[in-house]
Amino acid sequence: MTGPDRGYRSGMPLTRTLDDSTVVITGASSGIGTATAYALARRGTAVVLAARSEPALRQVAQRCRELGGRALAVPTDVTDLESVQQLADRAVGEFGRIDAWVNNAAVSAVGLFDEIPVAEFRRVLEVNLLGTVHGIKAALPYLGAAGGGVLINNASVLAEVAMPYQSAYNAAKHGIRGLADTVRQELRVTGRGQISVCTVLPATIDTPFFRHAANHSGRELVPPPPVYPPEVVAETIVRLLRRPRREAYAGGAARLIGLQWRLAPALVERTLGWYLHRTQFGPGARLDSTGNVFHADGQASRSGGWHGRRRQLVRMTAAFGLAAAGTAVGTMAMNRRSRSDR
Ligand SMILES: NC(=O)c1ccc[n+]([C@@H]2O[C@H](COP(=O)([O-])OP(=O)(O)OC[C@H]3O[C@@H](n4cnc5c(N)ncnc54)[C@H](OP(=O)(O)O)[C@@H]3O)[C@@H](O)[C@H]2O)c1
Asked: Which part of the chain is the Ketoreductase domain (predicted)?
C-alpha cells in the first residue's frame, strides 16, 4: 500500500490505557468532535470538550457521563491563544494531566475564490490553521510533562487534494498537514519523539458542517457523496491514540482519491473539479450567509442527516469508476510517451 496508510508508526502511543487517560477535543459541540467524545467516553476516558457554544458542550458532556466517561466542558474560541491555554490549564486542573489533544474545530466559507470576502477567508485560516497552532502550543508542554502523548489534527482529504468553491478551507487544511509534518520532525530531532503527531484525512462525513458553512454560491450546499457517518472518523482517532501513524484516511473514498491524486495529479485535479462542481450543490437557491464562521450555531448534533443516500452513492461510484479508468489510461499514456521519448 502507498501513501498515508502505509503504517509507519509516528511515535509512541498513549502512555496509559484509554480508561486512565485525559483527551482534549476541540470542536466537540458538534459532528465529528461529538462522535469522538462519545467513542472515548464509552471507553472510560476523561474528555475535555471545547468549542464556542457552552449549552451544546454541556449537553455533550452530560451524554459522555451517561456513557461511562468523565467530562469537562470548557467554552473556548480556538482563534484566541489565551482561551486555548486556559483550556489546557482547566483540563490539567480537573484531571491532573493531558495524554492526548485532538485539534478538530473548523469552519468553511463556500464560493468561488473571487466571491469569498477576505474577512471570511482570514477567519477560516484563523480557526482551522491558527486554531491548530494554538492547540499544539498549549498541548506540547503538558504532553511533555506527562512523559509523552498523542497530538491528532483532524484535517481532511482536502489537505491532500483540491476542491473547487473551498479555497480558504483547502488552503488551511493543506497548511495543517505541513505544520504537522514539521512539528513531528522537530520533536524527533529535539529528543521528544515520545510525543506522536498524527493527521487524519477524512472523506465526506455526515455532520452539520454543510449547514454551518458560510455560503456565497447562491445555491444550497450538500455533501458530495459518498457520505460516511462521523463514527468512522471517531474510531480512526481512537485507533491512532492506541497506535499512532503519521497520517490516516477515514472513509474508503478518501483513500481512493488520495491514491489517484498521487498517480496522476493533473488528470485527477480535472476530474475531481468536474465531479465536485456538480455534486456539492443541491437544487435550492440560497442567500449569502456567514454561517458559523464568526459565531456558534449552538445546537449539539452529531449527524447532518445525509448518510446513506443510495442514489448519490451510485453517482459517486460511477464518477470515480470513470476517474479510475481515466487515471489508468492517463498513466499508461504517460508511460508510453516517456518510453517513446527515450
Ligand atoms: N464533515 C465533513 O465532511 C468533513 C470532512 C473532512 C474533514 N472534516 C473536518 O472534521 C472536523 C469537524 O468538522 P465537522 O464535520 O464535525 O463539522 P461541524 O459539525 O460544523 O463541527 C465544527 C466544530 O468546530 C467548532 N468551532 C467552530 N469555530 C470554532 C472556534 N472559533 N473555536 C472553537 N470551536 C469552533 C464548532 O462549535 P461552535 O460553533 O460551538 O464553536 C463545532 O463544534 C473539522 O476539522 C472539519 O474540517 C469534516
From this structure: 21-161
Atom 39 (ligand 1) nearest CA: 296
Please report, for the domain that includes residue 122, its CATH number: 3.40.50.720
- Look at the alpha carbons of 97, 20, 200, 304 in this order and tell me if their dihedral is positive or negative: negative
CA distance 61 to 107: 22
CA dist 30 and 207 (Å) reads 8
Q: How many domains does the chain have?
A: 1
- Domain limits for position 218: 4-341
Which pLDDT tens digit goes with each residue over 100-113? Answer: 999 999 999 999 99
Q: For 224, which DSSP code?
A: P
Residue nearest to atom 34 of ligand 1 (CA): 51
Q: Which residues are catalytic?
A: 169
What pTM does this model have? Answer: 0.92
C-alpha span between 155 and 254 (Å, rounded)? 12
Element housing 277 (H / E): helix 265-279
User: Which residues fall within 8 angstroms of residue 159, CB to CB, at 6 or more apart?
Assistant: 173, 174, 176, 177, 199, 201
